[in-house]
Amino acid sequence: MKKLSTITALLAALILVFIPVLSFGAEPQPSQNLSPALIAAGFTADKSSVSPGETVKLDFKIKNTSSVLDVRNVNIRLSGGEALIVNGGSDSVYADKIAKNATYSFSKTFYCSPQAAGGVYPVALSATYEYFDGGEKVSQSAELSMSVRVQQPESVAFGQIALSGQSVPVNQEQDCAFSVI
After folding, report:
1. What percent of the chain has a predicted confidence (pLDDT) above 90?
2. Could you write out the DSSP letters of every residue in 42-74?
3. Any alpha helices (H) in the chain, and if so which ranges?
4. How many CB atoms lie under 10 A from the CB of residue 78?
């Protein structure tokens, strides 16, 4: 009887050790992040730089990175700060849906402020969107930034010009002959 209970205990111990190993012994699979994210997939301008007072057309491409879930109700707001202003129309873009692994493209024309100094200026893109995960609606947002080069045209400013001993104020017109060497 004692032998039987020892054998039963030994078998129970072996079962408790080997059943979990056999059932769960497979290597764990790396988890996939299925949550969608919006990223910048492309950005172009119709010119390499813009001068103050000019317009520039910007083309945007936004990608849904999820391989499983579509995003819906995508609201995109653009801002170029004080240097770059959306030229006419709204600073917002709406997309009903961006399918999984798909790219959404749109264009906006911006006006460059005449007061903008030469340099590189950011164009911020703020997007809010929704997706359904397991029947539950989830809201997310994305902040993206691109940049546009503003080229200040070459200029020369004179405070006063002296010609043959005569002074000519800048705000007044006067005929004079001169040559540039």
Report:
1. 60
2. EEEESSS-B-TT-EEEEEEEEEE--SS--EEEE
3. 2-24
4. 22
Helices (H) and strands (E) in the chain, counts: 1, 10
Rounded CA-CA distance 103/60 in Å is: 10
Structure tokens at 64: 């849904």
| Full DSSP string of 104-115 | EEEEEEEEEPTT
Separation of alpha carbons 80 and 42, rounded Å: 17
Condensed to tens digits (0 to 9), the pLDDT of residues 40-60 reads 999 999 999 899 999 999 999
Write the CB contacts of 175 (distance below 8 Å, at least 6 apart in sequence).
none
Q: What is the pLDDT of residue 5?
A: 57
Spatial distance between the Cα atoms of 86 and 168, rounded to a whole number of angstroms: 42
Distance CA 26, CA 54 (A): 63
**Is residue 153's pLDDT more than 90?**
no
What's CA 35's distance to the chain center, in Å?
18
